[in-house]
Each structure stands twice: as structure tokens, then as C-alpha cells.
Automatic annotation (TrEMBL):
This is Lipid droplet-regulating VLDL assembly factor AUP1. It is found in: Endoplasmic reticulum membrane; Lipid droplet. One of its GO terms (cellular component) is endoplasmic reticulum membrane. Gene3D superfamilies: DNA helicase RuvA subunit, C-terminal domain. It is a peripheral membrane protein. Keywords: Endoplasmic reticulum, Lipid droplet, Membrane, Transmembrane, Transmembrane helix. Residues 268-290, 354-379 are annotated as: Disordered. Residues 302-344 form the CUE domain. InterPro entries: AUP1_CUE (IPR048056), CUE (IPR003892). GO terms for molecular function: ubiquitin binding. The chain crosses the membrane at residues 20-42. CDD domains: CUE_AUP1. PANTHER family: ANCIENT UBIQUITOUS PROTEIN, LIPID DROPLET-REGULATING VLDL ASSEMBLY FACTOR AUP1.
Length: 423
């Protein structure tokens, strides 16, 4: 999976980067807010009308006109290709209202596959499946529904998640193609001014509805493609790949192997790649503002000096590891704690001719507390800051010994070793 490819399939920033477009958006904002308030009022009437009228051509026409007032303009191409005998429509997934848009053109049902059933599920136009405990049970329920005479066609989105509709299609899941042997592909394109064309990956559906009411309009273009049938001996995944290629060619997109799970992992990496701002670090110094940052040479000397202090406490840790952690923590004590609590094994640095052969061996790089200082020289920790340099030095020495003891205990517990007083 190419990072660049997956980056192009999702919009993480809703507002435009172009300065002129952003200025136009700011000037439009008062109008957009007024439109949003009016459309919320109109939207309530659209919902009531759709609930009151029975499913028919007249109802779809009225709701479609009222949806245009809400800024949702629906166009369709090649409606004559729609096969009324087909029980399954397969569509690419761009917004959280795709099923509502297709339902304005023809009667169909889209099952709610993940969220719990209830009023919100019904109000959004999804079909409730009832108590479904497994994927196999859900597939069997939908298979029985499709084979029943007189039922409305199913509308499914095999991508199982949304994209921005500009770069490529997520890999089609195979299970929708196991329901029937004939399907009708539906290509959907969405265009919207000012903002990211459609939605950000982790946006809530109600938030997206408010943005739809805010922008001047959102154009949904639906194209019906000829029905596609399964060939003899063709597996469900091969059938899914064939339909994915057909839709990708129709939309001038790339047919990718990126899955819904890859999208979730990509979103998680994007969130964690941002520098943490909420972590509370009581031992670290506050970072200076950008205009007070020291010169690079002075900063390197300061980090190098702190690294030597850490090196005195943990002499077996490579200096590059210490420097890397100090660049993040900016604190000697915090770096020492991080290195002691780390489960990573570091290569031991050579300190002389006798140990030069051990540089390539990987082992936990900790020293025994007994090698740090004689026990007779350790004094109790001071209850307050020492008045003399000797008192402060001995208090620091005890802290070092305590850290050594803690590291040795962690290592023994981790590897299940027996305590050895001679270590």
C-alpha cells in the first residue's frame, strides 16, 4: 500500500489551501449561516413529507424538488439502462447520504450494517436487519431478502467506507457479490464549492449535514451502467474485482487494493503523527516560543551537555539513543526514566579494548547497582535541597543507585531470572 496513494483518497482538511478561495469562503460565511438556518427549517418539512407520503413516483419527485432547496441537486445519466428486474445495486461510496440520493431516483433499501437499529437508523433511511450476531447470519438474511418476490432492490456499497471520490476506489468486499448472480453498477460523483469536495474521514453524519446546508449547493450525479452477471466458475471476489474495474473506468479513477482497515490505520497514523500537545511532563522544561529559539549551535551544545549527564547515569546506553530522547523530552530526569522503563534492547557501546568485541551483541544495557558506588558511601535522600555541594552530590548518587536497582529488578522480572547477589 503506497502512502502517497492513500493520502490522495481522503481529505483531512476541509477548508481550502488557496488564499483567494479561503477569502471568498469567509465573505460567504454570513450568507452560509443564514442558508443553514433556513435549510434546517425546510429540512424538517422534507422529513415530514417523506414520512407522510407513501413510496411512489410522486413522493420521490416532491422530495427531490425540496432537496434542491436544501442545496442537494441530483442528476442522473442513462436512466434507461436501469434494469427493474435486478435485485442488487452496487455503488461507490462518497458521502454518508449516498443511499438517500439514489433513493430519490428509484425505490431501494440499504441495510444498516454497523450502527445499532433505532429511530436514527430509520430516520436516515436505512433498513433495519434486526438482531444479527455474525457476518454469516447477515449475509444469509440479505440473501433470503433478495430471493423473495416483490421486495425492493438492495443498494450496497462494497467499499464499506467513504473516499473523496477523486483518486481511487477502495477494494470491493466480496460478500455483497455472493447474494445474487446479477448486479447493476451505479457510478456516483459529487461536487461541492469552497470546501473539500465531500467529507473528512472521521466526520459525524450530522456534522456533514450541517456543512451541506451551509455551502451553496452540492451536486450529485448518478450514472446507471448496464447490468453485469457472474460468469460460470467465477468466484465472488473475482466478480467483485470485475465490477470494481468497471466502476473505476467509468469514473476515471484507480482501482486500488486499499481496504477499509487500511483507511482506519491511515487515520490512526495521521492522528498520532501530530506532535503531542496535551501530555503533561512535570520534569521537562517548557519549550520557548518560536521567536525565542536558541541558535542551532547553542542548542546542540546544550543537548550534548545533557546527554553527558545521562551518560554518567546510564553508561551502557548509546549516546545517539540518549540524544534522540533528549531532543523530545528536553529534560535529563525524564530521559533517564524513559530509557529505564523502555523494553527496547540497545547495542552496548564499547568502552575499551576488553569490551570491543561485545559491541555487536544485543543485550539490555544496564549496570548493577553494586557497580555504581560502594554501599557505605550512600546516604539517605535529603528531605530538602542540600545546602552544601557534598550533600547535593550524595543525594544525586542515591538517586542513581535507586535507578540502577529499579532497572535491574525490571530486567530480572522480564526475563524470569533468579536473583544473584553477585551481579
Amino acid at each position: 500500500m503506497e502512502t502517497r496513494g492513500i493520502e490522495q483518497m481522503f481529505d483531512f482538511q476541509r477548508l481550502p489551501n488557496d488564499g483567494l478561495v479561503l477569502l471568498l469562503l469567509l465573505l460567504y460565511s454570513p450568507v452560509g449561516l443564514c442558508l443553514m438556518l433556513i435549510r434546517i427549517f425546510v429540512g424538517a418539512h422534507v422529513f415530514l413529507v417523506s414520512c407522510a407520503l407513501p413510496d411512489s413516483l410522486a413522493r420521490r419527485f416532491i422530495v427531490r424538488i425540496m432537496s434542491s432547496v436544501l442545496g442537494m441537486h441530483v442528476r442522473q445519466k442513462s436512466p434507461r439502462l436501469r434494469d427493474k428486474s435486478t435485485k442488487l445495486y452496487i455503488c461507490n461510496h462518497v458521502t454518508q447520504f449516498d443511499h438517500n440520493i439514489v433513493n430519490l431516483l428509484t425505490s431501494c433499501n440499504t441495510p444498516m450494517l454497523e450502527a445499532s437499529a433505532g429511530f436514527v437508523c430509520w430516520a436516515r433511511g436505512f433498513m433495519e436487519l434486526g438482531a444479527i450476531s455474525s457476518q454469516d447470519e447477515m449475509e444469509e438474511s440479505l440473501r433470503r431478502y433478495s430471493s423473495s418476490p416483490g421486495t425492493l432492490p438492495l443498494l450496497l456499497f462494497p467499499e464499506e467506507d467513504t473516499t473523496n471520490g477523486r483518486a481511487g476506489l477502495l477494494k470491493f468486499s466480496s460478500w455483497p457479490f455472493s447474494l445474487t448472480d446479477s448486479i447493476q453498477p451505479v457510478a456516483l460523483q459529487v461536487k461541492r464549492p469552497f470546501l473539500a469536495l465531500v467529507i473528512t474521514p472521521d466526520a459525524f453524519w450530522l456534522t456533514e449535514l450541517m456543512w451541506t446546508f451551509f455551502v451553496p449547493f452540492t451536486v450529485y450525479q448518478v450514472r446507471w451502467l448496464p447490468p453485469v452477471s457472474r460468469q460460470d466458475g467465477e468466484s465472488s471476489q473475482e466478480f467483485a474485482n470485475k465490477v470494481q474495474e468497471i466502476l473505476a473506468a467509468e469514473l476515471s479513477l484507480v482501482s486500488t487494493q486499499i481496504t477499509k482497515a487500511d483507511k482506519a490505520e491511515h487515520i490512526k497514523r495521521k492522528r498520532h503523527s501530530a506532535p503531542p500537545t496535551t501530555t503533561l511532563n512535570l520534569g521537562a522544561r517548557p519549550r520557548p516560543p518560536p521567536f525565542m529559539v536558541r541558535s542551532s549551535g547553542a542548542e546542540e551544545r546544550r543537548i550534548s551537555k545533557m546527554a553527558q549527564q545521562v551518560k554518567e547515569v546510564l553508561p551502557d546506553i548509546p549516546l545517539r539513543i540518549i540524544t534522540r530522547d533528549l531532543a523530545q523530552t528536553n529534560c535529563v530526569d525524564t530521559t533517564i526514566t524513559n530509557l529505564l522503563e523502555s523494553t527496547e534492547e540497545f547495542p552496548v557501546e564499547a568502552t575499551g579494548g576488553a569490551t570491543a568485541g561485545a559491541t555487536s551483541e544485543l543485550r539490555p544495557a544496564w549496570r548493577s547497582p553494586s557497580s555504581a558506588a560502594p554501599a557505605s558511601t550512600i546516604k539517605p535522600a535529603a528531605n530538602c535541597f542540600g545546602k552544601s555541594p557534598v550533600d547535593r552530590h550524595m543525594s544525586l548518587q542515591e538517586r542513581k543507585d535507586a535507578l540502577y536497582a529499579y532497572a535491574r529488578r525490571r530486567y530480572v522480572e522480564k526475563h524470569g531470572l533468579e536473583q544473584d547477589n553477585n551481579l
